[in-house]
Amino acid sequence: MESNDSFIMLATFEGPYSVQLCAFGLFLPLFVVTIVANVAVLATVAARVDLHKPMYMFLCSLVVADLISSVSTMPKQFQMLLTGDNRILYTTCMAQIFWINVFVIMQVLTLAAMAFDRYVAICFPLHYHTIVTGKRAIIIFSLWSLTISAFVPVTILFAPLKLKDSDRQMQGILCDNIGFARVSAGDTRIHEAYGSGIIVVLIALPLSVISFTYFRILPECKRTHSSDFKNKAMYTLFTHFLLLMLFFIPLFLSALVPRLGCETSAAVPSTQVSSCPYQM
């Protein structure tokens, strides 16, 4: 049986138990639908040879990342809603941090790869099959390898840290790097420096790649005289831009805004937990 020394406290859903049960009844079907839909996408792409194309391979990469994120985080949230027990094991928290980080970075890198794929298809259509198609498996494998390799050191750095004897309350409903460092008793400056480096390399650089591809594709669309080509190119840009917005808007809201909120609400202990959700 685990001792209380190995537990960390997560923020809980504030409300009567009946409301928590309603939330459980609402989110559980959504979770099941998400899992089934993602598995269906993977099965469809695997079964149909005509879908074995780079964009669908990248889509499958996004789906796998989404599955990992959902399975590694949602069961604990359902348990908290049902039991009200907001304790999470140290080892479970470490695993959750690892897979959430992998999910976020994998999404960013895959979206950057999709942007590059569209850039080559639109700006260099005659060379597309030699540049991208033959290397799709290598690209996807490299993205996953890079992402996992980047966060293995984070886990190794966090592992020796001891938890504080008191104040083990995280500010979010999920385990995250900043929250874990906050409840740790040791020096976390190395962790913060490494985390900042990852943000620069694995988020800022992919965003730069995405911006570059957009700036190159848009002039190409204006120069072409083929309305069919222009329509296909703009549709491609629109669908990719929609994916970007669906991912980055929630990411920025959950990572950047709460940090500012935590600073301004630090003097109000009663609202500190509920006002600071997941931070990367």
TrEMBL record:
It is found in: Membrane. The chain crosses the membrane at residues 17-43, 55-74, 94-116, 137-161, 193-215, 235-257. GO terms for molecular function: G protein-coupled receptor activity; odorant binding; olfactory receptor activity. GO terms for cellular component: membrane. It is a multi-pass membrane protein. Its main location: membrane. Residues 37-280 form the G-protein coupled receptors family 1 profile domain. Keywords: Membrane, Receptor, Transducer, Transmembrane, Transmembrane helix. The keyword Transmembrane helix applies. InterPro entries: GPCR1_Superfamily_Member (IPR052921), GPCR_Rhodpsn (IPR000276), GPCR_Rhodpsn_7TM (IPR017452), Olfact_rcpt (IPR000725). PANTHER family: G_PROTEIN_RECEP_F1_2 DOMAIN-CONTAINING PROTEIN, OLFACTORY RECEPTOR 10K2. This is Olfactory receptor 52P1.
